[in-house]
Design brief:
The protein is of the alpha+beta class. The chain has one domain: Deoxyribonuclease I, Chain A (4-Layer Sandwich). Helix content is 21%, strand content 34%. The strands form 2 sheets. Strands 5, 6, 7, 8, 9, 10 and 11 form a 7-stranded mixed beta sheet that branches. The protein has a 6-stranded mixed beta sheet with strand order 3-4-2-1-13-12. A hairpin with an 8-residue loop joins strand 6 and strand 7. Helix 2 packs across helix 3. The longest helix is centred in the first third of the chain and has 17 residues.
Length: 260
């Protein structure tokens, strides 16, 4: 009887050793946090951090982030969220605002390089915008560029179109890139069509309704990419209507081909 148990145990070990390892995954989140102000009118970064952590992301792009503004009680919101999530934070200034700065942030759960803020074109009467780009090294040793941005929100599409063209030109030489954010444009609009000439989009041309978070009917938050050897495994619009006026968008990528 004892020998039988040894035989069974050996068979289990052999079978388990034959199971193929799961392909690597990359979890990417884009989230317009509305400077942490929720549906109740309260600025609550702990609530934002809880939403972020619930998605277990590797890379996070945040829009509408305050840095030492009066309305944010002089907090460096990117660094506060870094402490609350255990991730590395970088901030990219778009404008001076309310005694401090306002713009983009990224949170990294992977090794990151030196960040660079790219100003985007804006008409004199419109709010200036920016893109924050950070090189990232994956556990496999692969490198990609992670870019978070927030395009013009006005009814006039001229600035959005100019900003989309600038993004396309600025990052046209990147082989591996993920560009995400609140683009304030839906698929079919001129800015998005310009971007989709050089980027793939998670969801293809399917609307992913993220705004407003309590009753979403607009698809303006996007995950665009050029990632040879990777594909989109899953897409999730996170239900968090109290934390911000946008719903977070989570895209999980999966490695298709072996790494050489």
């Amino acid at each position: 009887m004892r020998d039988g148990w040894f035989t069974l145990g050996g068979l289990i070990l052999v079978l388990s050793s034959c199971v193929a390892p799961q392909p690597p995954e990359l979890r990417v989140l884009t989230y317009n946090i509305h400077h942490g102000r929720g549906a109740d009118g309260q600025v609550d970064l702990e609530r934002i951090a809880e939403v972020i952590l619930s998605t277990r992301p590797d890379l996070v792009a945040l829009q509408e982030v305050d840095r030492r503004t009066a309305r944010a009680n002089n907090a460096d919101q990117a660094q506060v969220l870094a402490l609350l999530t255990g991730m590395e934070a970088h901030f990219g200034r778009a404008i001076d605002f309310d005694g401090g700065e306002y713009g983009e942030a990224v949170l990294l759960g992977l090794q990151g390089g030196a960040p660079r803020t790219h100003p985007l074109p804006a008409s004199p009467a419109h709010e200036k915008r920016a893109a924050l780009a950070v090189p990232v090294r994956l556990p496999s040793g692969e490198e990609l560029l992670f870019v978070g941005t927030h395009l013009d929100h006005t009814k006039d599409p001229a600035d959005r179109l100019a900003q989309a063209i600038t993004l396309r030109e600025s990052f046209s030489d990147q082989t591996a890139i993920i560009l995400v954010g609140d683009l304030n444009a839906e698929v079919g609009s001129p800015p998005m069509e310009r971007l989709l000439k050089v980027f793939d989009r998670a969801g293809g041309r399917k609307p992913l309704l993220t705004f407003p978070s309590d009753a979403p009917h607009k698809s303006i938050d996007h995950v665009l990419f050029r990632l040879p050897g990777w594909s989109v495994k899953s897409i999730r619009i996170v239900d968090a209507p109290d934390a911000s006026d946008h719903a977070p968008l989570l895209v999980v990528f999966q490695r298709l081909t072996p790494i050489r």
